[in-house]
Amino acid sequence: MPGHKRQPSIELLELIGVVRENGSEQTSFPPVHTPLSYDYVLVAKTMEKQERAAFKKQTEYIEELKKKNMRITKIIDDDLVFYGIQAPKEVFEKYRYLLKVSDACNWSSDQNVPLSTRIRIVHFILNHTPIHSGEGLRDLMKMKVFETRFCLHEKKKQKELKENWARWSACLQGQPITAVRNYFGEKVALYYLWLGWYTFLLIPPALIGVIVFLYGLAFFNTSPLIKEVCEADTIMCPLCDKRCKVWQLSETCTYAKVSLLFDNNGTVLFAMFMAVWATLFLEFWKRHRASYVCEWKVSDWCEEEEELILEIVNDVNCEPKKYKHSYLRSTLVLICVTVMILVIIGLTHALVVFRVIAAVLLAEGSWEFLSTHSNSGAMMLGAVLHYLIITVMTRINRIVAMKLCEIEKTRSFAATEKSFTVKMFTFQFFTYFSSLFYVAFFLGRINGHPGGYVRIAGKWRLEECHPSGCLTDLFIQMAIIMVLKQTISNVFEFTGPWFCRWLKRRRTQKLQRKCAHCYLKHESEDKQGAEMCDNCKLRDWLSNYRLNDVDSFSLFNEFLEMGVWIDVLEAIGVLAVIANGLVIGVSSDFIPRLVYRYLYGPCANGTATDIDCMAGYINNSLSIARMDDQNIHNEFSVHQMTTPSGLNVSYCSYKDYRSNEDYTFTPQFWLILAVRFAFVILFEHVVVICKFIAAWFVPSAPMQVKNDRLFDKLNRLKEELKVI
């Protein structure tokens, strides 16, 4: 997951301007401040004679809104019909009172309804106002009775946010979180609050990471391991069939130096630090979040109870949706989720097959450079394909998660959102990391040995790790995916909304200037409650109509990419401990080096004083395959066993702990394997204990916040007692 600080994207700038959406639930969006301005605007196409049925439904829906005392203003512009909608004051008074008497939140009795909440209330009423046939606004929009709907922005607040927040020069300034909350609502504000906090707390691991890097750099040229690789005359076995020849270990000198930069003793300490840091970050984030949540007085907020309040505000005689559970539906959803995960894992297998075949084709090609580096080329192509799979599967995962939520038939939108979040996170986790898990924990460990290589369909030989180690393959794959994701994805993220907005501007007529009379009223902020003329209303509505469609899930990918939800962050923290332990214990050479140093190296008996304890490690980690063995003779041709200088060799080395006679694993292999698993278990237990201590030591909310909530509740209870 990226650790850089993200500036508000063009999609967010669209939100600052206006919000439009096509039939989906919405979160809090820009409100209107003045008493005679409009909360929402519906847009429809002008109806022809043959579309009388649609026109009748349109008229019927508008009449239903009028029955709820909605103020409706109709303005026709060529082929578009705009309906300005303003909710009566009584709606918001009911909402405020019901919040006061419910357990949904701890708002004080004298607190007004936030402007962003006003939009959410009207949005709910529009979505839950059916016509006589039972069709709601979403259904009517699908039938093209209405084209779209949107809520209006407030230009002065929009200008303030752009100046203080949504611009590159504001990168080093503090975010106006409260202003963001007033304009967008709590969810969007908390996301950017989290993003700023996350960026700030990345400074310590960044500094320690630099120190670990410099530690590896200090031994860049003096490490005995690098010296042994760079000066070795060891002949290594061919890395692929047919055209691949034997090669010298010294050819990997540069890669060995680079590998040491991120695979050294400091890496273990850094991994442990990051696991503990994840816990501290989460605990400090809870404290930071609690301060703002308490200030906004939504610390006890319950979305499901708010939906119940909105249902009553919309219809006093409403019947609540009952809680239901269907074992059949749950079983069906579980089966579908399992099948989806298996499909994603299947794509990982397909990616492995692609890399194996690509390595063969590159090795047999006419380009000498690619033939020599066929495995590395195949790995890079596989990383690019993995990025494309991530891009495509993200869209498919979203569709499948939505369909599964429809099958579940959850009681409320809040429950639907939670269910969708869990499914989407699960699918995306396997999409992102299945291939990386294969590279980290399986690549080069299941491919067999000379004379007994594992082959796909008995033909294509499984790929091996990079000659300098498996971590190099993992580094290459992650680097390519991250670079592509940060470049291509961001290019589309910025240019896509801009291009869509440009197309809509081309399709509509040029806006007229606001008349002087309305301009002066706008500058005085409508203090007298005056209203703009129809021409100026139309001008504003058309400018909003041109903006891009936005729904409640428009920023969902942003949330998912940064792991915003507390429960998700808790899960990521646990997975981070497991992954770090496995990478250090299984993927890196830390454990084999440790075992060699104390049991097989020159210092094993404690007598060596003038020699480095890691001397001879490289040769110790290699096994030998001899051509006098019939299986080896059948595996490699005479052409493959010829060095670049023309010398025919009778044996070659390969990286593994196997017997030189029968190619079975040596006792050293089993000892290393046992130590690997012991290290993983010990690492995870130590880090988990540290996580629990850190979580206990750092309270989830500052004492001042808890005291503020305590006194706020006390004052509210006293006020209620005065009413009796």
TrEMBL record:
GO terms for cellular component: plasma membrane. Residues 180-562 form the Anoctamin transmembrane domain. It is found in: Cell membrane; Membrane. Keywords: Cell membrane, Glycoprotein, Membrane, Transmembrane, Transmembrane helix. It is a multi-pass membrane protein. Residues 116-177 form the Anoctamin dimerisation domain. One of its GO terms (molecular function) is protein dimerization activity. The chain crosses the membrane at residues 191-215, 267-285, 331-358, 378-400, 420-443, 564-586, 669-698. Belongs to the anoctamin family. PANTHER family: ANOCTAMIN, ANOCTAMIN-9. This is Anoctamin. It comes from Scophthalmus maximus.
